[in-house]
Amino acid sequence: METELNINVLVVDDNNINRLLINKVLTRWGARADFAENGLLAVEKITNNQNYDVVLMDVYMPEMGGIEATQLIRAMQEPYFQQLPIIALTASMLSSERNQIEDAGMNDYILKPFDPKNLFEKLSAYQKV
Asked: Could you list the residue range(s) of the whole structural domain that residue 58 is in?
């Protein structure tokens, strides 16, 4: 398995331990990570920076969850916001949740606790060539 990723990732999760774990894995792969504790901060960072290659977005967070944040991002007209890959981070995946994720405009999902191999495969599809 390759172990290098040339990618800018925004990790949106209200749980500090989850952010630390993902950061440790991403750093090992050479990926650049930025963090937000909720959807509101994520929308702000994405709007201000527009330099992320992919977003890992927790579905359930205080202040604003991942579904609502994704809907706000997708509502913006510029191509960057329409095309930015957003991967849901979720502890469970019921069919109703899968529909919510797809309806919001999320591209994919990863179950928590995440499998590093699965995370690498999903992120590698979005890295810069």
From this structure: 8-124
Q: Are 57 and 69 in contact (CB under 8 A)?
A: yes
The CA-based angle 42-32-29, given to 5 degrees, is 130
CA distance 32 to 28: 10
b/e 1-26 (16+ beta carbons within 10 angstroms → b) = eeeebebbbbbbbbeeebbebbbebb
Tens of pLDDT, residues 58-101: 999 999 999 999 999 999 999 999 999 999 999 887 888 889 99
Give the mean pLDDT of 21-30.
96
Give the SS3 label for residue 56.
Answer: strand
pLDDT at 2: 59
**CATH code: domain of residue 108:** 3.40.50.2300
Instruction: Count the Cβ atoms, other than its own, within 10 Å of residue 94.
Output: 9
Domain count, the chain: 1
